[in-house]
Amino acid sequence: MKKIYIFLLVLLTGITSCQKASINGDLDGMWQLMKIEYKDQTSKSPDQLYYCVQLHMVQLQGSAMCRGTFSRSGDSLRVIIRNHKAADVSAYGMNDTIQNFFIEKLSSEKMILNSSFARLSFRKF
Hints:
By secondary structure, the chain is of the alpha+beta class. It has two helices and nine strands, in the order H-E-E-E-E-E-E-H-E-E-E. Helices cover 16% and strands 46% of the residues.
C-alpha cells in the first residue's frame, strides 16, 4: 500500500512540474482580434483571427498561421514573425513582419495595441 502512495505522489509531482508558469501576466493566452482601425480612418472587424501568446512566442491563427517571437518592455511590445512576408501578416493588422506596438490597454479580458499602422482591439478567448 505504501508503494502505491509513493507511486501516486511521484506521478502527480511529474505532471505538475511539466506545466510552464505564466511569465507575461495578462498578456499570456489566446486573444481574438475583434477590430482593426487603420490610420487612414478605415476599419474592419475580422472573422476568427487570433494572437496566441505564451512564454516568448506568438502565433497568429486564422487564414494563415504564422509563428514568431515577441519582446515586451513596459508598455511596448515588439512582434517578430520570421519566414513570412508582410502579405502573410496583413490580415492580422500588421504592415510588416516586425511590428512595434504600444500597449494602450491590457487586462485579463481586453487588450488594445496601437502601432504606426493600426489600432487593434482584442478580447480574451
